[in-house]
């Protein structure tokens, strides 16, 4: 494995711990990407959640994208609508796997007997 430059390692660490300055760079890139799509920011964020569901994405991805979506005005009901909309295409297992991650990102908690 090749050596990792100190700046690269520091950037990874900053992003991993949620450093606002490091994340701000990622947000800037996100804004440029959104502008190129022609979608409004709310729709763009909801589409990205749909992609996460389809990809069976890791939990941290949901936390990030759902925070982006709610910051752009999406409601929990909108996010539930996305989950329902993609269900026929991605299948039940992906929807079932995504639901607890979405709940966690929205600050909801499953009871132990439900988990």
TrEMBL record:
Transmembrane segments: none annotated. InterPro entries: AhpD-like, CMD-like. It holds the Pfam family CMD. It comes from Conexibacter stalactiti. Residues 29-99 form the Carboxymuconolactone decarboxylase-like domain. This is Carboxymuconolactone decarboxylase family protein.
């Amino acid at each position: 494995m090749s050596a990792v430059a100190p700046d690269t390692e520091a950037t990874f660490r900053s992003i991993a711990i949620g450093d606002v300055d490091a994340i701000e760079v990622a947000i800037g890139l996100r804004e440029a990407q959104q502008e190129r799509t022609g979608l409004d920011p709310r729709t763009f964020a909801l589409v990205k959640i749909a992609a996460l569901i389809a990809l069976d994405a890791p939990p941290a991805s949901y936390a990030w994208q759902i925070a982006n979506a709610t910051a752009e005005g999406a409601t929990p009901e909108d996010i539930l609508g996305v989950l329902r909309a993609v269900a026929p295409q991605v299948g039940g297992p992906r929807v079932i796997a995504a639901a607890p991650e979405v709940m966690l990102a929205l600050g909801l908690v499953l009871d132990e007997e439900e988990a």
